[in-house]
Design brief:
It is built from 13 helices and 13 strands. The chain is of the alpha/beta class. The strands form three sheets. Strands 3-4-7-8-9-10-12-13 form an eight-stranded parallel barrel, surrounded by four helices. The protein has one domain (about 5-355): TIM Barrel. The chain has helices at about 5-10, 10-20, 25-40, 80-85, 130-140, 140-145, 165-175, 200-220, 235-250, 285-300, 315-325, 330-335, 340-355, and strands spanning about 55-60, 60-65, 65-70, 90-95, 110, 115-120, 150-155, 180-185, 225-230, 255, 280, 305-310, 325-330. Helix 7 (about 165-175) runs parallel beside helix 8. The chain is globular, with a radius of gyration of 19 Å.
Length: about 350
Amino acid sequence: MSQSSAIWSAYPAVRPLLFSLDPERAHHLAMAVLSVVHRGAGVLLPPSAPLEGGARTVAGLVFPNPIGLAAGLDKNAVYLDALGRMGFGFLEVGTVTPRPQPGNPRPRMFRLAAAQALINRLGFNNLGLEAFLRNVSRSQWVKNRRGVLGLNIGKNADTPIDRAIDDYQTGLEAVYPWADYVTINISSPNTKNLRDLQSEQALAGLLTALKRTQGRLQAIHQKRVPLFLKIAPDLTEPQLESIAQLIRSHEIEGLIATNTTRDRTAVEGLPGAQETGGLSGGPLSEKSTRVLAQMRQLLGPDTALIGVGGILSAQDGIEKARAGADLVQVYTGLIYRGPALVADLVNAFRACQSA
């Protein structure tokens, strides 16, 4: 066993300590420790480079491997360099809003360990665009482009829903120079009325404005930055059909399926299941994969699809690929499995590619 894999494989021994803490506190502690180790004893960690295996071109971008970090783990782009040592082919950070906001009151994260799940109602807590981009600009991982960088944008909670376009345009203009792709997050369940933007009329207006802004920014910065739309897993078939039609007609380059779910059917009766917020982890897997497969069928082969939701093993990732995902992302799986999950997924995709 290599030194780096030995370090990652030690996570199960540390997890009970982290799980003895409040989930949000445990998250900040884990990230702080990773950052300290990265800065002070980086020799103990793998190189800040993607693991090799399954390289592919998606939406015109070359991904060193198809395994990515989902948005939400690093909302303020503080830990890019440390996270880059886990071997990801791409990192997505955010969601960032134009202005800083504290998010919802604590407690706002809850573990459902028996189901390998989390419920969160964080509410886009972040330091705002200025601090976010300052952190991005300082990252050596970004400067050396060790992988593909996705920047995820949203609206402030106090911005009226009929002015949401303003916030998304502000976000897109700010992050465009730094991003390899930009994710439009309209699917968090924790910002009041945000999911209303998935309705046909609202989404048509938003996409029209953002594609116009994208074209203008492409001319200014002399580079094309693809737009990805992140949707909820709780949409009906007619809603999915409507969204797919808008993605095609507005030439949106990619789709991320899916965000967290409000549905509690899979965890009914478990302690904590009654908490409001978005459910992620194991209980989301089947639901998100079903939406992914439906969208692949509706969109055809040309739209880039990222599968996320309930990836806790290599097999979960392969199932997303079989459902139509070009790439996959993890978040809750890292909390339950640790960084070794990334290598497991890369190896599984490599094996499937060579089979």
